[in-house]
Design brief:
The protein has 4 helices and no strands. The protein is mainly α. The chain has a domain of about 110 residues: Methane Monooxygenase Hydroxylase, Chain G, domain 1 (Up-down Bundle), CATH 1.20.58.90. It is rod-shaped and about 115 Å long. Its main location: Golgi. This is t-SNARE coiled-coil homology domain-containing protein. Belongs to the syntaxin family.
Length: about 240
């Protein structure tokens, strides 16, 4: 089976595309200032993508384990199995590194946000009442902005779930195609075995008939039969190659 038809390489290419997009988003996350709404949005997006890719890699690992039980049946060898295991292990490490870095950054941002909230609770009698007005307005703007961000995040999560559902259906379709192909090959092998048994029986029958004819014909008859078959072969050879 060629790589273009191998389900492993089809799913591998899909996962690699997801990892490339994850790395691109991660580099963007690194350039965004900490504590901003954009960083919060990118953090949640990265963590969700990490979970999705990790799940796909786990499913691919399960398929490799199934193939490892009988590699010859799937047309692969131990070297190919080891290469596939090495690739999934490397993919899992890349995702884990991104998830660990983003998770650590998220915890630090949460700590800084908690400190800022504590400082905002401290009384400040020296500020005039107008500062309270601006503070309340700022809080309203922040709540509205956070609400919009949450709506955007929910929409993005819905899109990611749709994409994940599509990927699951695609993997299921690939598995179904493999199952159907195996059943078709098994049927062909059964038919070939039956045909070989039938041909063997016919050859045995012809050999027995020829032995009986040769035995009854005697030495002179055998010579005549050989001469007749030789002449027949020469005639057929001429008809096939010179006409």
């Amino acid at each position: 089976m060629s790589k273009a038809q191998d389900p492993f390489y089809i799913v591998k290419e899909e996962i690699q595309d997801s990892i490339d997009k994850l790395q691109s988003s991660f580099h963007q996350w690194e350039r965004v200032p900490g504590g901003t709404g954009e960083q919060v949005h990118l953090t949640k997006e990265l963590l969700a993508n990490c979970e999705s890719i990790a799940w796909k890699v786990d499913e691919l690992d399960k398929a490799i384990s199934v193939a490892a039980r009988d590699p010859s049946w799937y047309g692969i060898n131990e070297v190919e199995l080891e290469n596939r295991r090495r690739w999934t292990s490397n993919a899992r490490l890349q995702v884990a590194d991104v998830k660990r870095t983003v998770g650590a950054g998220k915890e630090n941002d949460n700590s800084a946000s908690a400190i800022r909230r504590e400082l905002m609770r401290l009384p400040n009698s020296q500020q005039p009442d107008i500062s309270d007005h601006y503070s309340a307005k700022s809080n309203d703007d922040f709540v509205a902005s956070e609400s919009d961000r949450q709506m955007l995040l929910l929409k993005q999560q819905d899109e990611e779930l749709d994409e994940l559902s599509t990927s699951v259906k695609r993997i299921g379709g690939v598995g179904l195609n493999i199952h159907e192909e195996l059943l078709a090959q098994e049927k062909i092998l059964d038919e070939l075995g039956t045909e070989m048994d039938s041909t063997k029986n016919r050859l045995d029958f012809v050999q027995k008939k020829m032995a009986m004819v040769m035995k009854k014909a005697g030495a002179k008859g055998q010579i005549m039969i050989i001469i007749f078959l030789l002449v027949l072969f020469i005639i057929l050879f001429i008809l096939v190659f010179f006409t």
